[in-house]
Amino acid sequence: MRQSSVIARRVAAASVSLVLAAGAAACAGPEDNDAGSGGADGKPAKGGTLTVLNSDPQVDFDPARLYTSGGGNVPSLVFRTLTTRNREDGAKGSEVVPDLATDLGKSSKNATVWTYTLKKGLKYEDGSPITSADVKYGIERSFAGELSGGAPYLRDWLIGGDKYAGPYKDKSGKGLESIETPDERTIVFHLNKPEGEFPYLATQTQFTPVPKSKDKGTKYEEHPISSGPYKVVKNENDGERLTLERNPHWSAKTDPERKAYPDKIDVRSGLNSSVINQRLSAGQGADAAAVTTDTNLGPAELAKVTGDKALASRVGTGHFGYTNYLAFNPKVKPFDDPKVRQAISYAVDRSSVVNAAGGSSLAEPATTYLPNQKSFGYTKYDHFPAGKAGNPKKAKELLKEAGHKDGLTITLTHSNAKDFETSPEIATAIQDALKKAGITVKLEGLEDNDYKDKVHSAKDEPGLFLAHWGADWPSGGPFLAPIFDGRQIVKDGANFNTGFLDDKSVNDEIDEINKLTDLDAAAKRWGALDKKIGEQALTVPLFHPVYKRLYGKDVKNIVISDWTGVLDISQVAVK
């Protein structure tokens, strides 16, 4: 899930949801798991009501408009997709598994044609059968301008996708001809380039089946037709209050991933983060069986919780594919000189940065751009070893070689948002570390929207700024390609290739990896590419966030995967 106001909501929810979004993502897996019991026999039991306390409303509850990772959290209770994330703890949860489809898809013609077969017996909440035509129509809806907001990949990957305007403007009635449905259970996708990671993309909610006869356009979100274990019975204030109850036609036989223990899900959003943590901590009434999917414990709250054994036992720890880093614009002096970029890389004090991000419980130091998880292809490297406290001596040597023997003065742009990522605390830690190397750092703090507009503008991008990125799925592809593929440089729009790298060898390797349908083999290639790109010092990886979230005292069967980094509510029991 991409981190920007334009492309990714998913990471924000993961740091979010991420969902994801979002604020999408992220390692070793959860450290604090409670596989506790709810029933008299010591196993999770069906029944009861799960309350979800969130900051951000679940707006645009339409599968076409959602930007999710692995199908999202609350959305995946209602929307099933061709594939989904594996609902297991830690690294195992980074795997993609079949959902509506019988397998991960069959690839042919060098990963440009993907064929899926739907399972038998799939039904909507009204008992009508789910067909391949419904999956095709659900995807086509996501191309409609009035239903925008979802992931952009289908528009880029499907033949003719860049010209298709959605079913409401399609006078031919044929829809996207690059999606074929030869029978009610078969759907075939024709891509304009090899994409070995198509099974990951098929977890996005745009692959949710939508019956054409029930489509109400922009009003569909008020009561989307469920293909999952729960149906929407109430949607108030655009997702601020969602009430979900069991879908009587959902069958666990066709869906081994979602456990669906509670009888009812009550989602309450628009709450202050401190209020959410206070309610989860107290655990009174319905809050005893409550969770959050988007609110972390902050440093002060975590310190309080850690001192209370009962509360500490109710903290879930998760990792999500997400990296916070310093970004250079080599078009701006003095960052056009690799030695200056290397000097700053050596001078960074990651210990102080981690402390500024909330401490070692909430952040892990990073020396690689890719997150340190196997699914991303993590390959250990540290091209400019700064140690724990920085290496100002080596930095000064490089500055002297670059003609700055008396040091230099630079500007670091950051957001004023108190997010412990791109905020003043992190910027000040960088400023203090670089001062030891003879580098004077002037801080330019911007309001969050102004910051995002500036750092994503090819024309206005500053020379040095704090940045972050989260993956739309656990692979090196959606991590490296948007940031380092020269063909993705956007001159008149939201640009994410901050270093303006356009290296043919890098672009070609991205294409070669995309041809691979062996995801493990692809992961190793992504890791090697990360190491190669890292030599150019276009970024300085700083840290990977760790997510700490409270859950109610009556909540059992906690599962936190490395795909999302947060508690999976499809697994939770409250009785």
From TrEMBL:
Segments forming domain Solute-binding protein family: 95-487
Region (Disordered): 208-233
Matching CDD domains: PBP2_clavulanate_OppA2
One Pfam family it belongs to: SBP_bac_5
Signal peptide region: 1-28
Matches recorded under PROSITE patterns: PROKAR_LIPOPROTEIN
Keywords assigned: Signal
Basic and acidic residues biased stretches: 212-224
Protein name per its UniProtKB record: ABC transporter substrate-binding protein
Taxon lineage: Bacteria, Bacillati, Actinomycetota, Actinomycetes, Kitasatosporales
